[in-house]
Please model this.
Amino acid sequence: MAVTWTRAWWRWTGGPTTRPVERVVRVDGRSRADEPDDERQAFGRWVRKRPRVDGGKRRGDGCGRRSLSPTWVLAVGGPQSAGRGGRVGGVGRDASRLAGLQRRLQGIAGGLAVYDEAPDNVSSSTYSSTPSLPGCRVAPGRRADAGLPLARVTSNRIDVEALAAMDGVGRFREVLPMLMDPVAFAEAFVSGDAAGGCRVPSRGMERHRATLRSCGVASDARSRPAFAMKAFTTPKKDGRTARLVLDARPLNDAMRRPPSMDLPRLRDFIAEVERHRFAMQCDGVSYFYQFPVDASISRYFGIGMKGCDMLLNVLCMGWSWAPCIAQRASNVLVRDLGLAWVDNFLVLGGTLDEAERNVAVFRKRAQAARVEVRAEGDDALWQVRSRFVCVGVEFDLAAETQRHRLDPAWAERWVGGSGMTAVLSGRATARQFAEVFGGAVWATDILAVPRCHFAALLSFAGRLGGRMVDAAAPVWDEVVDVPPSARRELGALRKIVRENPWVVGGVPEDTGSVLWTDASSRAWAALLEAEGRFVDGRQGVFAGPDADAHINLKEMLAFAEGVVRLCWAPGAQRCRIDNAAVVGAVAKGSSSSYAANRVLSRSLRVAERRRIVLCPGWVPSGEQQADPHTRGALLPRFPAPLSASR
Model:
């Protein structure tokens, strides 16, 4: 374990600052002042500490040992020390020793600065459970790559000009200059100044330099890059290799936001697949790395490395524009043939002959643009199937009614993962909770489970996310307490995912009726229209806490009353609401408001028991049939003509 003692008169006080840092010489000759300004600002402020008269020795440090002299600073890791393998502080390869050292030092205050980061060979879940010293800033950790080698990537490069020539819509041609035209690239900067100047060193990336060179992904920089950013690796699904990712936040912050990706919504993607009977699936080989970047633009995609920086010669994974460019290129390849999800291609057909014809067209396009693809898993390339797994969804198009569910392998990993265990125990890191919650969002979309049923889980995730956004430097390895209500709801969702039921696609037959709901500041009303007349209705006055609620919540209450009291026939129930927030919440099955989620959950559970599918739609207030009955007009005798509401 690498531990560095430094003679200094400084101690940690916490809090970000931009004040210059005075020189603190370490035994290896480096200093705190040698670090880049952005790292000094991120790690806080150092102030001079007054030495003790008695030489700095004292007892009663809280752990039964003599305290360290406060005239010394113990640096365990930290941005100012380069350890084994280029990792911070050289904490080595034994996280348990680091945890033990931290526990022994718990009682020491003042004169102690501790920075730590996950060792190379320890997973984030194992490391993040170690306690941190009170009052000490813990640097944001990264998912450990366990010292994995970089996956071999293709040296193939797409003919982007040929691909642009196939673009009948022009969406790919709109973003192509960001790869090939340095003038257009420079114009994308917010300030108009593309000089850059940022340099953030990478840690432990030197061992991958030969691999990056051999596959043509990167080359040594002959001059200082405009942006030299931190690179890191993340494990791939095979668990044996890692992929390269560039922390391009400095570049992203300097550029304007990219346009829409043109990525289909997941529910629309699933619905489109289930309108067919056959499909061929493949994915791009190292897809992002197949897009070449002009040499004059690659200077903006620098990798800060020890000795000599490198320049990416391909599309940068981590750059905010990269997903947009990749998705729009994929849409060109599958236009009128199927669907694309970034680097996943799905060619569809209603019959076997149609699917095979579409596959032949797709092959010609891929060959003309020099796009290298491969089959997913053990499937043979270009094979047409009726049952397959794509983007984490298992489809069965051969069944009498097309259906889908979660990929069983993914569901098993999410249900039994260490992050799930930690969250359900009540104490997990923010990183673990974010990973579990992201899987929960994905699972509810695929299994068509409304997220409003998990109001407490959504509320806690919103609060935690807001705290991370507001923080100057989010600490993702901070241990958080998950409320019991959120754990109960997550446990209920975990049970659903473990069962992984099939979801039958398609839209049920229309009920033939329309539900009109509206609310004012003091009252609500709901009308049911069928066969050109009003057949039933309800109205009421808000009382108690509801009387002071926000108008959006009152509109949601009116909608819930209408569903519970008036909708009984199974099928697709059309709903007309003049509040866009309520329409959006009903359509996606959740709201940003905890109270609205509770109300919406009640109405959706009733609709599910009655086998009703709610189909909300927005109407202007002037066309809202229930509006007069929220402002004093009494309901007519039913059945009543449509003119009775005016």
Notes: The mean pLDDT is 78. The first strand starts at residue 4 and ends at 7.
